[in-house]
Amino acid sequence: MKYLVLIIRWLVGLLFIFSGLVKANDPLGLSYKMQEFFEAWHWSFFDSFSLYMAFAMNILEILAGAAIIIGWQAKFFSRLLLLLIIFFTFLTSYVLFSGKIKACGCFGDCIPLTPIQTFAKDAILLLLIVVLVFTNKYIRPLFSSSVALSIIIILISSIALMQWYVLRHLPFIDCLPYKVGNNLIDAMKIPANAVPDNYSYIFEYEKDGKKISFAEDELPDDLDSSYVFIDRKAKLVKKGNGLTAAITDFSLQTVSGIDTTQALLQTPGKYILFFARNFNNVDRWQSMFNKIHEVASQHHIPVFMVTADMASAEHLFPSVSLLQCDATVMKTAARVNPTYIIMQGPTVMHKISFVDASNLFSFLQ
Asked: Which site from 42, 68, 207, 276 is most exposed, i.e. has the minimal number of CB atoms within 10 Å?
């Protein structure tokens, strides 16, 4: 039995450590995933705490995995693992059966799993951890209490420092479609073998005080202002194969509202997209941005400020070329606010956080 428990504790511990490390590489990604759940549950008041919760969850997941491997406080941490996996299994089952959220983000964006895969993974882990709970007497510590405690303290400090670093300097490994080396035009193309979901639609109207429903192919010829639109309901007729473009919602609009996405991405040569979602911390980067903008202009390298807050951008940077983009899209394209993305035509050449902006000058030659 003790050998079986040894195998299980290493398997469970390594999976929890790996899962936590992948998400600690991008704690903002987990934060945004939490906000998806909060929105589905109408708990939006938790949104402002989501980053702190993600930060703590990543540390807790890695801590629990490491503790069970080294055998420190085995009884406590086997039960903690059980609580965690019950919680994770609830989340993955919600994703699988509700259909309100596409993925749970168990391994972040680096290892995307389907809902059924994540649920199966958690169900197996649940069984393994139940075994650990009832057999923790067979778990022998690998180190003395003082050494184990020192390892745990170093581990917690390291993971906290890692997350603090990537929140300022961008993730170590970028797993998103806007990563360095990607061609954004290609990423926006739908795969040739993609089969979309097929829906039928029911339209609800009110006429003469009565509610009337029509299928989309049954709309009356005399549909006019006497019909008051109420709602449109979609019903899934046939499920597609789930293949979609890696980027589906990236759009850049000029001040006048013209979509210039394709035109800009097809621009030959080097240019800079400066993603400034908002200007809450503008005092920390405005001076450096002005210097970069000036040097880039001297080398005939266009600089475009991409923002979701066009009014503030026009006020603060009247001489800079501005482009408007959806704030949610910007969170995916640039985890740190703001971020410099150096483009070569449609290809992402470099991504640099504003705190490392001085490194940008070497690319302006």
From this structure: 42
pLDDT value at 8 more than 80: yes
Reported as a single tens digit per residue, the pLDDT across 41-76 is 999 999 999 999 999 999 999 999 999 999 999 999
**Taking a C-beta distance cutoff of 8 angstroms, is the pair 275, 333 a contact?**
yes
- 163 and 20 in one domain? yes
**Count of structural domains, the chain:** 3
Token reading at 296: 């880039």
Last residue of a domain, one of 169, 186, 216: 169
Q: Nearest CA to 343 among 283, 261, 287? A: 261
From 36, 38, 56, select the one nearest 46 (Cα to Cα): 38
Q: In sequence order, which residues have a C-beta less than 8 Å from that of residue 67 and are 6 or more positions away?
A: 13, 73, 74, 77, 152
pLDDT for 257 equals 92
Last-in-domain residue among 152, 169, 186:
169
- Burial-class residue 285 by CB neighbours within 10 Å (0-12, 13-18, 19+): buried
210 in the same domain as 120? no
Give the angle 220-225-226 at the CA atoms, nearest 5°: 75
The answer for residues whose C-beta is within 8 angstroms of residue 82's C-beta and 6 or more apart is: 126, 129, 130, 132, 133
Q: Domain for residue 253, yes or no? A: no
pTM of the full structure: 0.84
